[in-house]
Amino acid sequence: MPRCQGNNTLLPLLRKLSESLGEQQAKNELRWLIDHARKDIGDGISTLQHTTSHSAGHKSARLWRDQPARSADEIQRDNDRLTSVQKAWLRQAIADRTERHKPLQYIIGEQQFGKTNIIVRPPVLIPRWETEEWTLRLAELINSHTDSVRDSHLQKGLGDPRPLNILEACTGSGCVALGLGSELTDGSARVLGVDVSDDALQLAMDNLAFNQMLLGNRIQFAKVDLQQPVHTLPEQLRFADEAKAGWDMIVSNPPYVTPSEYRDLEADVREWEDIRALVPLPPGTTDPQTVPSGDLDPSGMSFVVQLAKLARELGLAGRDRGEDTELRLDSLPRLVVEIGGAEQAQSARQIMHDHGLNSTEVWKDMAGTDRVVLGYFK
Length: 378
Prior knowledge:
378 residues; alpha/beta; Rossmann fold; 2 domains; seven-stranded mixed sheet; two-stranded antiparallel ribbon; 41% helix
C-alpha cells in the first residue's frame, strides 16, 4: 500500500522546479539539492566540507544527471529524513533557482574540480566540466614530460630539474591554477594566476586557502590587466618574492563568447556571471551596451590574439635559455587556450602561427566539440 504523501514537502518543490526546468532536469537538480542539504545544512548553517579523495569533477558533474530519478517512495524517505531547517533551505533554494534564475552551483556554493573543491560565488565564473577535463589532461601531459626529464637528470647524475613556471591568464575562481597545483608532481611547477577582477582574485585566494592541504606545488595570484600593451606586462608578471620570472607556459580559459552568442545565453548565465569572463570586451568596459557595435569583436578571438602577443613578448615562441635545454621545452605546449568550437579552433591556430608558435594541436571535449588549442615552438 503506498505511503501517505499528504505531508511531503518535496513533491510541491519538485513540481515547481519541473515547471521551470523540465521534469528530468528538475529531478536531477532536486537530487543534488537534497544531497547537499543532508550533508551541509544544519541549524541554519552551511559548511563546505573538504574533499581529499580523487574524483574527476567533470565525471561527477555529468554522471549525476544520468542517475535514475528518485521514485515516489524515495522522495518520501528523503522527506522523512530532512530536518525542518533543511526543508526551509530547500524551499529558499528552489525559489532562487526558479524565480531568480540563480545557478545551481551558486546555491550550493561549491564545485568539484579534480582533487580540489572550488568555492563559487557570484559574479565569478563557475568552473565548467569542459575546463576541468582539459586541465586534468594537461596535467597528465606535463607529468609525463617532467617525469621523463627527471629520470634523464638522475641517469646523468644531475640534480632535480627546476620547476616549470606556468602563467594562468584570466584565473577567475583559481580552479585551473589550483587544479594544476594539485595534479602535477610535487615540486615540478609553480603557477601564477592573474585576473583583473577584484571579486575573482578574492575568491581565488579563498580557494587557495581552502585547498592548501591538497597542493604539492607553489600557487600565487595577482591582479594584472592583461589588456594593457604587452610590452608593459613582463615586469608585472612575476612571483611575489622575485624581481622577474621566466615563463615556460601560458594557460587560459579566456573570454571567447561572441556578442551574438551572449544574447542567446540562458538567464542563469547572463544575469549572474561576470560578462568580462565570457565576452572579450574593449579595455575598461564592463557593459557591451555602452560599446559601439563596431568595436565589439564578432569572432570572440580578440583575447586569444592578446595572449598570443603576450606569449611572443615573454619569449615562449622561440626562447631557449641555456638551462632549459635539459627541460626539452619544445615537447611541451607554450600556449594553451580554451575556445568554443571548430571555427574558433581554426582561428586560434592561425593566430598562434602568426605569433611564432609554429605547431598547433586541438583537443576535443567529451562531447566531441573542439575545446582547446595548444601552441608549440619546435
